[in-house]
Give the backbone structure.
Amino acid sequence: MNGNNGFNISFPLHQEIRGMYNFIGERHDPYSETSKIPEYLKSARNMIEKLYNNNGNKKKRYDSQAFEITVELIKVVEEFYENGKDGYNSKKNLERLKSAIKEIYNKVNGNNNIETFFRNAKKHEHTGFPKNYDEIYEKIDYIIKNKRDKYPIFILLDVKNLKGVNEICGYTILAHGDEYLRIVGESLRKYFKKGDLFAMFGGDEILGMLKQPEISEEFKRGLEERLDRINEEINTKFITYLKEKNLYKYYKLKGEFPLGIHYKIVDLNKENIRSVGDLRRIMFEKYS
């Protein structure tokens, strides 16, 4: 198995390995009759049989990667029980299993291929940013814990008044909000370099992760100026859209509410950010 590339595999297997690792971390007696580890092993066997049977479809390469990981997982668990039968120290053997499964999980999680994941992930229809929240949160968590030197600056973005945009005419017309989100995504891509990562962080929330080797106060000032320009561009482009659709008068009747993005710049080297949950907390506190 090539451990340098990471893998994007089927979500059920991804969940299976994460669940196994989390479960083992809490168990004190994996050899007991109530241990659920054999259930995970059985599930992995079922998964590998299914992948084998489907190996001829158009996802052959994708499935073969999952197939290989599952084989390795089964081997690790079987060795664990084999060592236990031989009188191997239970605690030591358990630590070996946890370590081996963590290594497999890291491969599954694509630790060394973050940019590939964001490039290939399923995209939001209008912003064009990855939108599978469960997988995105796991990748962000990994970046925070292992790659913060590579992506030290996060930007928490909240799209202003999306609900108000959808109701400009006095009732909900989602097409307006769709166009608004399209302009937001287009403007962000225009002002940031290719290596910077953006993903949906909620219905009207976006997270940016900037690939920045050195951070200075000058860089942060420049970043704020860039975000202010993005705000101006979003506002200008959407007002133009409203005028072209003869909707500007309704927008004025609504009080010409603010358009664009709220933003907060987070320096991982200075703020106490240990998980994706901390980012959610900061966003909630700032925009609630």
The CA atoms of residues 188 and 196 lie 10 Å apart.
